[in-house]
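Morning, I've got a small favour to ask if you have a moment. The fold is given in discrete form, as structure tokens running alongside the sequence. I'd be grateful if you could look everything over and explain what you see. No rush at all, and the record is pasted right below.
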Amino acid sequence: MNGQENSWIRLTDDSFFRDFDGNFDNKIFRSSTGVFEHQTYDTRLSIKYAISGGDECYRFEGRDHRIPPGHFMIVNPKDTVLSRNLGSRQTEGLSIFIAESMLREAIQSHRLEAFQIEPFYPDDSPVPHFMEQITPAGDSAFGRFVAGLSNSPSLHSNWEELFFELSYSLIQSQAGYWRRLHLIQAVKPSTRIELYHRLEQARAFMLDNIGRPLCLDDISRAACLSKYALVRTFKAAYGMSPYRFFLNKKIEHSKQLLQTGKPIAEVAQRLGFADHAAFGKRFVKETGLTPSAYRDAVS
């Protein structure tokens, strides 16, 4: 097998794994399967990307994860990962595995170039912890890089260089996540990671309910944290209180609605303000302009 064949592997069923030596370092698996189920053991850091068809389905650490087409998910090293497609719909996706040595090289390169990136390492792990979140590929430079790998492997002539560039982009994409983990106050790294996940639950809850007048009790319940722990940890990680974050998002969304010519009373109602007067007062306080003046300025 040549270098390209060693790094790029096509899967149409699980027969490949019968003679596989278990070395996942710097490999890209492109799968095109109908009904499929395979359990992988002791995997490296990987990126899962759904290309087309149905969702890419994975189960690890007792949870199911469904990645819709056009989305990706970073998966930290696991003891076992179950990959499966139990539907009749043909599904295409990528599983990209990166060697520890390549990650270390990319981290060192960032440090030599004086980037302020400080990886966050879990207990006794040689590999930093990466944010496990299903994300649209088009939302970031790293996501677009991953999506581009679904093209023909013949476009990639130097695989070592490709995996280094992928690792370098991955490290850059995690800078904000690692910075927030370092800011959260907890003794154990695993506790910091769990607290961050709860903060993300709080953020998602606020964004999903942007049109409601939420109170702190609502948000703390969504995050499974006490009100005190939520406010303290949220401010440490994001530099603002949950209330300030929620209000900022309401104002941002109101600007978008005003730019489309929506009536002020409708904008106020959509965003959960008591009435258009209450909305106008808050908008002036946050922006220095009345809603109508802002709309005129951007139209």
